[in-house]
Backbone:
C-alpha cells in the first residue's frame, strides 16, 4: 500500500501498538485477524490521507512520489513486469487499491473484507472488478 | 469443506482469466521483501515503542489537564498574580540618570583611565589647556607616576645619567 519499507515498518508497528492498547476493548464477535486487519487498513488509509494532504502543497503529487520510491526501492525483488504491475496499482484510488491488495495478494474472502472495511460484499466485488480492469489496462498500455 | 474452498478459488481464478488475461498470467507472490531478521526484531521494537509511549503519555496527560478550561483559567490567573506581584512589589534599585551631554571628558577618562594611553596627544593637551581637565590632572597626580616626590639624590643621579650639570640647568 505504501511501497516504502520504512513507511510500511512504521505502519506495522503502529498497528500492533494499537492492538496492544485496545486488546481489552476487543470483542470476540469478529475474528482476531479481521480485527487486526481492520486496524492495519485504517492506519494505512489515514497515513496515505496525511501524505496526500502534505503533498497537496508541494509540487508533484504523492502517487508520483510513490512511483519514484518504487523505482529506488531496495526491498522490491520483483521483475520488470511486476514493477509495471505495482506502478499500475499505485494509480488506483486508495480504497480501491486496498480492496485490490486484499483480494489479489492476500486472497481474502469478500465476507471478511466486508467485515474489515465496513463495506457491503456487492460494493467490494464491484470495486475489485473495476480495479482489476484498470490495472489490466494499465499493464497492457505500459 | 476443503473442496468447496478449492472450487471457490478456482472460480475466482477463472474469473480473473476472463476479466484480466494479462494479470492472471503474472506471479501473484508479493514482490516486497523485508530486511534479514526483520520479524525477529519486530516484537522488541514494538515493546520499546509501547514503553516509550507510556512515559510520554504521563507528560501528555499533564498537558491535556491544563487544556481543560477550568484548569487553564486557574493556571492563567496564577501566572497573572505572580507576574503582577513581582511588578508591583519588586522595584529595581534606582539608577541615577544623567543626560549624555552632562558627561565631561574628565568623567569619561576617569571611568576609563586606559583611554589616556590611546588618546591623541593634541586632544589631551587641548583638554588640559581648556581648564576642563582639572579632575584629570588630580587623577594623574594621584597615580603612582606623578605623586612620587623626587629626592635630591635621585635628581642628581638623573642629571649624571643624562650628562647634565646643575650649571647647564641654570643657563636654560
Residues:
Amino acid at each position: 500500500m505504501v511501497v516504502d519499507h520504512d513507511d510500511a515498518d512504521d505502519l506495522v508497528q503502529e498497528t500492533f501498538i494499537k492492538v496492544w492498547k485496545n486488546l481489552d476493548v476487543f470483542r470476540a464477535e469478529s475474528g482476531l485477524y479481521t480485527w487486526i486487519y481492520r486496524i492495519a487498513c485504517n492506519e494505512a488509509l489515514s497515513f496515505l490521507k496525511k501524505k496526500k494532504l502534505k503533498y497537496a502543497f508541494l509540487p508533484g503529487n504523492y502517487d508520483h512520489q510513490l512511483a519514484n520510491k518504487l523505482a529506488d526501492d531496495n526491498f522490491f525483488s520483483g521483475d520488470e513486469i511486476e514493477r509495471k504491475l505495482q506502478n499500475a496499482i499505485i494509480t488506483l484510488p486508495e480504497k480501491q487499491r486496498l480492496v485490490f491488495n486484499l483480494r489479489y495478494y492476500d486472497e481474502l474472502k469478500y465476507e471478511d473484507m466486508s467485515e474489515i472495511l465496513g463495506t457491503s460484499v456487492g460494493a467490494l466485488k464491484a470495486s475489485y472488478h473495476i480495479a482489476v480492469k484498470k490495472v489490466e489496462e494499465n499493464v497492457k498500455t505500459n | 469443506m476443503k473442496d468447496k474452498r478449492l472450487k471457490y478459488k478456482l472460480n475466482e481464478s477463472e474469473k480473473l482469466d476472463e476479466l484480466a488475461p494479462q494479470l492472471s498470467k503474472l506471479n501473484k507472490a508479493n514482490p516486497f521483501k523485508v530486511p534479514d531478521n526483520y520479524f525477529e526484531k519486530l516484537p522488541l521494537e514494538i515493546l520499546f515503542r509501547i514503553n516509550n509511549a507510556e512515559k510520554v503519555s504521563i507528560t501528555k496527560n499533564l498537558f491535556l489537564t491544563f487544556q481543560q478550561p477550568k484548569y487553564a483559567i486557574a493556571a492563567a490567573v496564577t501566572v497573572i498574580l505572580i507576574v503582577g506581584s513581582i511588578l508591583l512589589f519588586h522595584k529595581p534599585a534606582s539608577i541615577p540618570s544623567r543626560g549624555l551631554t552632562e558627561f565631561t571628558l574628565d568623567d569619561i577618562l576617569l571611568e576609563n583611565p586606559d583611554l589616556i594611553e590611546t588618546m591623541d596627544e593634541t586632544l589631551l593637551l587641548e583638554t588640559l589647556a581648556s581648564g576642563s581637565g582639572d579632575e584629570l590632572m588630580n587623577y594623574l597626580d594621584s597615580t603612582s607616576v606623578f605623586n612620587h616626590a623626587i629626592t635630591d639624590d635621585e635628581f642628581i643621579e638623573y642629571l649624571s645619567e643624562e650628562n647634565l650639570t646643575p650649571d647647564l640647568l641654570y643657563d636654560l
Summary: The two ends of chain B are 137 Å apart (CA to CA). Chain B has a mean pLDDT of 71.
